[in-house]
Design goal:
This protein has 192 residues and is an alpha+beta fold. It is 51% helix and 23% strand.
Length: 192
């Protein structure tokens, strides 16, 4: 399990140096969890209870549209923090599901534990703000790409930035995330 924490510390270290006291706080408050493939760990219609850190594996956020089609709104692999951010932070009912596409190794912290550790941590606020800023910037870029790039360009950009996802995540989830049909994405990938 120490590998889980080492991965998290390496991820945070690209933003800020964690003092040993904060590392101990992380070890106490983040719980390791192995989640089998194709498991929904947070369901729509509930208040998200955890902030998750993907140590390894592939996860997505999705919601159902008016026709009951799954719409993938976030797609990621580790290492990365992953949750329904707005609803987690505001303790509101989420319309999103958090789905482990593959087997996933994660660390998770409850909302109550996150608040408790924030009161004693010297660095948690700083790295949390930076991580949220990165997430917001990524969302802004995705919205801009959806509005301004062709499906072919969106796919090429996504494939270049996310080769692991391209190799390990089913085509239907990637197509949904990119806002194109699975058939169109199949044609793009085959060069036709």
């Amino acid at each position: 399990m120490e590998l889980y924490y080492t991965t998290l510390f390496e991820y945070i270290s690209r933003i800020i140096t964690l003092p040993e006291g904060d590392r101990e706080s992380v070890r106490r408050s983040f719980k390791p969890l192995f989640v089998p493939k194709d498991t929904v760990i947070e369901k729509a219609g509930e208040v998200p209870g955890y902030h998750n850190f993907i140590v390894s594996g592939f996860m997505r956020n999705f919601h159902l549209d008016g026709d009951n089609n799954e719409i993938t709104t976030d797609l990621n692999d580790g290492p990365r923090f992953f949750t329904s951010y707005f609803h987690f932070m505001n303790r509101t009912v989420s319309n999103e599901n958090l789905h482990c596409i593959t087997d996933c190794a994660i660390l998770r912290i409850s909302r109550d534990d996150a608040e408790a550790t924030a009161a004693t941590s010297t660095t948690q606020k700083d790295y949390t703000i930076r991580i949220l800023q990165e997430h917001l910037q990524k969302d802004k870029e995705r919205i801009n790409d959806m509005a301004n790039l062709t499906a072919e360009t969106r796919h090429a950009k996504f494939a270049q930035a996310n080769p692991g996802i391209i190799r390990h995540v089913p085509l239907k989830y990637i197509a949904s995330y990119l806002g194109i049909t699975q058939r169109h994405l199949s044609r793009l990938r085959s060069g036709g």
